[in-house]
Structures are given as C-alpha cells and as structure tokens.
Specification:
The protein is α+β, with helices and mostly antiparallel strands. The chain is built from three helices and five strands, in the order αββαβββα.
Length: about 160
C-alpha cells in the first residue's frame, strides 16, 4: 500500500491519506479533475465503481470509489470536499468514466441490463414480474394432482 501512496504523491503532492479497510485519499476540489485523469491514465484506475454524496456538518462532498482491474481489482477511495457550503460545486468526471444512473438511484459505472420481455420459449404465464415477487424467494411450481377425489390413479391411465 505504501507504493500506491508514493505513486499518488507523485501525481498530487498535496494529497493526504486516511487508513482503513480501503485507502482513502483527500483531494482538493480545484485539483480533482486533473488528479482523476492522472489516476486513470497513469495508475490504471479504469473503473468508477460508485460515488457517494456526503453531508459532513461543515461541508458537502463526494467519495469516489475507483477500481484498478489490472492490479487484482485494487480499490481506492477519493474524498473531495466542496469549497463553499452555500453553493457547493464539484467538477464532474463523467468525461473520464462512463457513468449511468439506474432506476434504483445508485450511480455506478456498470449497470446490468434489465429484462423487459419474456425469454424466448417461455409463455407469458410462466414469467412473473419482479415487482410481484417478494424479495429472496424463488417461485415454485404447483404440483399436479394425480387423481380426482374418489378416483384411483389406476383408473386415470
């Protein structure tokens, strides 16, 4: 982890670090876009995994979660604070990483495609919308009744 710190300090000498489960780098807002571009081009952080807007009591800010796929999915957090709380502003990095906004409100760099039509070979009766299912349940098939009440299964054959 010390070699990644040294590499970041070469790119942005004013960086400060916070230790935790993932290395967190503090970057000033005025230097954020150029630092982000250097992190992508020079250090290989090619995926913007997530970004989270934060409201600290003294300032607004964003924490960017960057991932490097060439170095075993190494993750780096970058904390950027807005200079003015009354008129907060942080430069965008959407020109560096492709950002999509899925319907659930979480901003990520990759969103799995949603299925809007039934799969080929399935009837509309067998496909149920996800909104009708309860979370963490798997739809089960109903068992067919082999015989009618009062009739043995041998007579049905």
């Amino acid at each position: 982890m010390s070699d990644i710190k040294e590499s970041i300090l070469k790119i942005y000498p004013a960086a400060t670090f916070e230790e935790g489960g993932v290395l967190l780098v503090n970057v000033a807002e005025k230097d954020w876009h150029s630092t982000a571009k250097a992190l992508q081009e020079k250090l290989g952080f090619d995926v913007l995994t997530a970004l989270v807007g934060m409201d600290w009591k003294d300032a607004f800010g964003v924490i960017y979660y960057l991932t490097c796929t060439s170095r075993n999915w190494e993750m780096l957090c970058v904390k950027v604070l807005a200079d003015d709380r009354e008129n907060p502003y942080i430069h965008t990095v959407s020109d560096l990483w492709k950002v999509r906004t899925p319907s659930i409100g979480i901003v990520t760099s990759w969103v799995p495609p949603t299925r809007k039509r039934p799969l080929k070979g399935r009837s509309a009766r067998n496909t149920r919308s996800a909104s009708r299912r309860t979370p963490c349940t798997v739809p089960t098939r109903r068992k067919r009744r082999l015989s009618k009440p009062g009739i043995s299964s041998a007579r049905l054959k």
